[in-house]
Amino acid sequence: MDASLTAEQHEIRRTLRELLGKRCGSAELRAAVETPAGHDPALWDALATQLGLPGLALPDKYGGVGCGTLELALAGEELGHALAPSPLLATSVLAAPLILALGSAAQREAHLPRIAAGRLTATLAAPVDALALTCGNDGDWAGGGRAGGVQARTRDGGWRLYGEAVRVLDGHSAGLLVVAAHCGGFARSRVRLFLVHGDAPGVTRVRHTAVDVTRPLGRVQLRDVPAELLGDDVDVLGPLASAGEVFAAHLACEAVGAAGRVLEMTVEHVKRREQFGRPIGSFQAVQHRLADVYVRVQAARSAAYYAAWAAGREAVGGLALAQALDALRLAAAEGIQLHGGIGFTWEHDAHLYFKRAAGDEALFGPAHRLRAHAADTAHVFTEKGVTA
């Protein structure tokens, strides 16, 4: 692995940071999260038309740019730096790769070009356990003698879905839903993936109230909804776990971007804020605290880049995500502490980064469970095939 970024990768970061600097400042961010969609549609259109961001990792035969997971993760780092709410995570990191990997030729042709052009947003409606981040994805949610979640039944030669999915990324606004549903009854239940249009009859969607307003979540209710089986009748647990690896690496880069920005904000503040006739940044204790944050952020960035590069080769996404979440939590906490009273106010952006740290850890962690699952998967504490 060449640890240095290419000229093209540097350009992706530079152009995206420049665009977000103009279009997603503090005022624009706060206005965007108050919209029904939870993001700025005009900004999403600019990201799609000017930078081709939704199709960055899609093949050019479907209108994509043809880059890889690392380039998409670098874009995610810049979105995390600005806390820019967008459908990129749900659409391009979760849903599009599943359609590309499992969809039929007709399904890929129907949806991927529209996703690449930014005309269609999509998401995965499934429990977080499906991505195998903190536990195996073959447990109760995938059958295991139980039903629950979303059920699929055949009727009149087609599939119908019933049930509810909660805490779905952009679930309240995505135009296409990739829904994980149980088939086969209680004892022989198995999971398949289905395509459902967001405005299909019987679909009810509500936006969740969330700690992190920059990460919009929705609840999806399905009542006798017509659905299309994604691809052939194949085992989807492996592809979902693979999607979880890419998702974890992308989230890690987002967290690193957010941690880097809150560190920048804090350094700028301690250079200006004076106490006892001198900037508080001149005190050695403050310098030591910020140096610790800097080291943690840089280490997390290296791990996140490696996980994005190694996606599909090594299962290290969970470890990188754990390290990035720890770095973001530390950077956000120190940021609020060193900003003093102003850091706790609604008017200051520091609390938004703290909420991103708390929200992501609650949704996709916590860090110790990510590490524990990685250790179990690698048989760190047991011999392969032997349980403790």
From TrEMBL:
Q: What InterPro entries is this protein classified in?
A: Acyl-CoA_Oxase/DH_mid-dom_sf, AcylCo_DH-like_C, AcylCo_DH/oxidase_C, AcylCoA_DH/ox_N, AcylCoA_DH/ox_N_sf, AcylCoA_DH/oxidase_NM_dom_sf
Locate the Acyl-CoA dehydrogenase/oxidase C-terminal domain: which residues? 249-375
Keywords in alphabetical order: FAD, Flavoprotein, Oxidoreductase
Acyl-CoA dehydrogenase/oxidase N-terminal domain boundaries: 6-118
Keyword Cell membrane set for record: no
Pfam families the UniProt entry points to: Acyl-CoA_dh_1 (PF00441), Acyl-CoA_dh_N (PF02771)
Cofactors, names only? FAD
Q: Does the keyword Ribosomal protein apply?
A: no
Q: Which GO terms describe its molecular function?
A: acyl-CoA dehydrogenase activity; flavin adenine dinucleotide binding
Q: Give the UniProt family note.
A: Belongs to the acyl-CoA dehydrogenase family.
Please identify the protein, giving its name as recorded: Acyl-CoA dehydrogenase family protein
